[in-house]
Amino acid sequence: MTEPNSPEDQTPATTPAAAVLAAPVPTAPPRSQWADVWSQFTHHKGAMAGAVVFILILAGVFLGPLLWQIDPSYIDIRARNQGPSLAHPFGTDQLGRDMMARMMAGGQVSVAVGVTAMLLALFLGSLVGVLAGYFRRIDGPLMRLTDLFLALPLLPLLLVMVMLFRDMLSKNFGPETGIFILMVVAIGITSWMPTARIVRGDVLALKEREFVLAARSIGTTPFKMILRHILPNVVSPIVVSATLGIANAIITESALSFLGLGFPPDFPTWGRLLFDAVDYMQQNPERVMLPGIAISLSVLSVNYLGDGLRDALDPRIRGR
């Protein structure tokens, strides 16, 4: 007969402390790569300040006309060359046109030219960079072509292109559309070289990585290799080049318009407003300052955005 308190009937008791130690410790789910990129970007004070300023500029340029519904081309000779007032917060020009409305319209054109020219330069630069980095046979000719474009004087080349093709494009597409196409193409085909060299360097490094060699060993075609393995891994330099390309395109368009070789006088851009205001600099200095401040803030904010994206997309800096 077995006693009730015999060792066979006794089971080891589990204390509360032991239960707590034995319980699985909850772990936070791993963050995705883009979450790390966003976290690094938001900790970059300059990039956040640039993003806020650029968003405010875009909102003022594209949403402002919905609130300030004055035609930028409306002429009122009786109100010409007026200073800032309640009726015209930025004053009027030599024909009595509202400067605030013209600043908004000019900002739309300048930003549109900058973004479109950047996309063209980005496409050409990425194409040349990927082809030169992946295919060894055409690397030499493509890089010599890039060096040739880098050696060309940019501003005289743009002036020659504008003088040669402005009348032809204006006749075929209209003055505004023709000059817009000319500006975008001229700036785009003279701004792709830095992107091409950066992308080529990254592609040359990626070609020797293990996953690329493994994909090549199983017979992956070059076209699929570029689309699936090369391009997704060169997004970082392409995005940074895109932000910096917008600033470069805005400055180039403003310089051409300031020289009087851009859009027609009745089609405002920030550079054209500067050109028109030079003769009235002493009488109305704000007419020169306002477009200059808009150009400077746009370029500066986009450059800070590019710096923040470069730091956030670089895995060597992201964890710091």
TrEMBL record:
TM regions (residue ranges): 47-68, 109-135, 147-165, 177-199, 230-251, 288-306
Question: InterPro entries given for it?
Answer: BP-dependent_transpt_permease (IPR050366), MetI-like (IPR000515), MetI-like_sf (IPR035906), OppC_N (IPR025966)
Question: Gene3D superfamilies annotated for this entry?
Answer: MetI-like (1.10.3720.10)
Q: Does the keyword Aminoacyl-tRNA synthetase apply?
A: no
GTP-binding recorded as keyword: no
Q: Where in the cell is it found?
A: Cell membrane
Under the heading PANTHER family, the entry gives: ABC TRANSPORTER, OLIGOPEPTIDE TRANSPORT SYSTEM PERMEASE PROTEIN APPC
What are the record keywords, sorted? Cell membrane, Membrane, Transmembrane, Transmembrane helix, Transport
Stretches assigned to the ABC transmembrane type-1 domain: 107-306
> One GO CC annotation, please?
plasma membrane
Membrane topology type: Multi-pass membrane protein
At the top level, the lineage of the source is Bacteria
Protein's name in the database: ABC transporter permease subunit
Q: What is its main location?
A: membrane
| GO biological process terms, semicolon-separated | transmembrane transport
Q: What family is reported?
A: Belongs to the binding-protein-dependent transport system permease family.
Please tell me the species this chain comes from: Pseudooceanicola pacificus
